[in-house]
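Lecture 7, part B: from sequences to assemblies.

Below are the input chains for today's worked example.
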Amino acid sequence: MSDALVRLKETLGTIHDLERIASLVAWDQETMMPPLGAEGRADQRATLVRLSHELLVSRELGRLLEELRSREDSLPYDSDEASLIRVVRRDREKALRVPAELRAELIRAGSLGLGAWLDARARQDFRILLPHLERQLELKRRYVECFDPAEDEYDVLLDDFEPGMTTAEAESVLEELKDELVPLVAAVPELDPAEDVARSGPFDLADQRRFSLGLLCELGFEPDGWRLDSAEHPFAMAASLRDVRITTHYHEHPLGGIFACMHEFGHGLYERQVSPSLARTPLATGASSALHESQSRRWENLVGRGRAFWTHAYPGLQETFPERLGAADLDTFYRSINRIQPSLIRVDADEITYNLHIVLRFELEREVLAGRLALADLADAFDARVHSYLGIEVPDVRFGVLQDMHWADFTFGYFPTYSLGNVISVQLWERARADLPELDQAFERGEFGDLREWLREHLHRHGRKFTPRETLERAAGSAIDPAPYIRYLKDKLETTFGVAVA
Ligand code: ZN
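Predicted structure of the full complex, as structure tokens:
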């Protein structure tokens, strides 16, 4: 290895360590930290981000990248080394545009926003969060101004999560989903509440936890390398390739915490199966948010709401909750976990209405950023949009504008990647099923290794070596395309509820 490459890797290793420590203290903030720690934690997170940013934009790193230009050209495009040099060059160019103080201030303000969000939720008062949002909007506008003027200001924010995708491209996918899915929701009959056994709790929280952990271990959660904890809002992170943390949130009803576990497992597995050759580099993570969501939504929905999976897992769930589920057969349970019905909470929404939750958030974010919607009016606008797309009333802000963590630290640009992830999940699913025709039989036996290996081989091991577009092309053989996803939803409606839709 050339001397310049050794030094590049040393610096990148330090940056990587600082970033993972920053993620670890963020994990601690969500799972363990007492609420009064919020201010001190905001400073700590800002410090870590500032230090890693300074290393990335340092002259020394720039010189090393210059020195390595000819070496990069001499290596195959998909080699680890050429990919590392290429991706770091791009990361650095982007980072150079943003002053370190602004970046640190964004992190600090976001961290304080998270504290205010918890408080606002507890007191059901959006006004507690509002000044934090106003401060963060001002900072985000300064952030957007650091970049060349884009066709749409939102492009800059979306690029942080979905590099290379424009707002117009995301909008065209989301619009197609909206046009196709709104009529489907209306076509599905309401499930008889007596048949809705997955919502017929109370389901004891400790029993849910025990069952979830057993299920996760079958999927591939390794007790020595993973942790499962509770958080207000479920999320996943990896402190290193062999230290994966996932969180969930159990409710007495419905059984959503189990599905959240499977969702976060999908994120965790993506991080866990990155090639060890990429460890301690900026390539040791997923390629983009949408690709990450394609992994979580697969385990949660394509596997976790599938019949083959529950053919295996349902007897154990019945044993865990004999009073609640003992008398309900698999078909009844299957229909209940696949119920299509407008509901208030995004993370508990069914596979179809979920996307309408995303569409409305995407629209509101764009309106706020463009100055067409004042933040002071965001809570009311949220409720009105829920009414218009889902036909239901929001009883209070915890079920409305304050339900998600994402706006507390102003991660505008993230929400659309959930629906993009849904779309991609089925593109990859079709590929995997074609390669592994016995997948259902394996799930019925409680075996998930073949799917994990397929994912490792076609997607996970590459980490962030390629752009999201290249990564998807390699794994799915095509660009993003909503058609397979819409087809999957229609098929499922027909086979589960006998609803035939053209
Ligand atoms: Zn997710």
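Note for the exam: DSSP finds 22 helices and three strands in the chain. Keep this in mind when comparing with the next example.
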